[in-house]
Amino acid sequence: MIDRRTALGAIAALLSPVAARGASGEQFDVASGQDSLPVSRYAAAAAGKRPAVIALHGSRGIELRPRAYERYVEALTASGMDAYLLRYMTPADTAALTSKSSTHESRDAYYAARFDGWADTVSATVTAIQGRPESSGHVGLLGFSLGGYIAAEAAARDTRVLYGGMPDALVATVKHLPPLIVLHGEDDRNVPIAEGRELVELGKAAGAETEFVPYPGKAHGFDFSDTDPMTQDAIGRVARFFQAKLTA
User: Fold this and answer.
1) Nearest to 28 by CA among 71, 74, 93, 84
2) Which of 108, 140, 149, 188 is most buried by a 10 A CB count?
3) What is the CATH number of the domain that holds 48?
4) Measured between alpha carbons, how far is 94 from 89 in angstroms, rounded to an integer?
């Protein structure tokens, strides 16, 4: 999936809304099985109908690094797009993945079993956004780490979405992918850069417009740094990608 940043073009919450500077937050819920999951919306200042981008957090949620997500929200809203932060994990997900007895293998198995359910939650969020009066109907997905895999699966299944990993079990079945951009640190030890390259090749094979941006010497989550100059480079690329694809 997009190692750290995977961006597509069509579809994104938190328990405590990120207080993005210059954007007023609004919260609503989407249904996921027996649970209701919060979505935080940040509106662009532009009048009229606008595209939207849904951001999907990594496996550790949003609260650990709220300012990192806030920077993306600010860049997207400043570019005329509404930003949505979707907390897709249910309480059961959080309990299973943070258990002291969990292992790398058990977490991978849990992810594989939950990708479909998480992608369904994303699709429900897309439906909710497209039903809003200010929506232009164009939605993009921005996935971070685990959220990138979820975005890729949702984008492959839902032709309403524009995107930017792909769960291994889904690779052989992919017949559609929207335009995508993959930003990946070359020294990433969490998600090997080969996976980012494989996603780009998969997109090309499906006829999608693709872009791959490797960052030499950068590790997993480099763009969450408050001081790394490449943080702003990554955020700028993501904002320009969505602006070009969703407002065209």
Assistant:
1) 84
2) 140
3) 3.40.50.1820
4) 6
User: What pLDDT digit, counting tens, does each position of 54-72 carry?
Assistant: 999 988 888 888 888 999 9
Q: How many domains does the chain have?
A: 1
Q: What is the 3-state secondary structure (H, E, C) of the chain?
A: CCCCEEEEECCCCCCCCCCCCCCCEEEEEEEECCEEEEEEEECCCCCCCEEEEEEECCCCCCCCCHHHHHHHHHHHHHCCCEEEEECCCCHHHHHHHHCCCCCHHHHHHHHHHHHHHHHHHHHHHHHHHHCCCCEEEEEEEEECCHHHHHHHHHHHHCCCEECCCCCHHHHCCCCCCCCEEEEEECCCCCCCHHHHHHHHHHHHHCCCCEEEEEECCCCCCHHHCCCCCHHHHHHHHHHHHHHHHHCC
By CB neighbour count within 10 A (0-12 exposed, 13-18 middle, 19+ buried), where does 162 fall? buried
Instruction: Tell me the pTM.
Output: 0.85
> Which residue do the tokens 């099985």 mark?
33
97 with 59: CB under 8 angstroms?
yes
| CA–CA dist 138, 53 (Å, integer) | 9
Residue 225 has pLDDT above 70, yes or no: yes
Instruction: Determine which of 14-28, 103-117, 125-139, 185-199 has the lowest per-residue pLDDT on average.
Output: 14-28
pLDDT of residue 242: 93
Rounded to an integer, what distance in angstroms lies between the CA atom of residue 164 and that of residue 92? 27
Domain that holds residue 42: 5-246
What backbone phi and psi angles, to 5 degrees, belong to 156? -70, -30
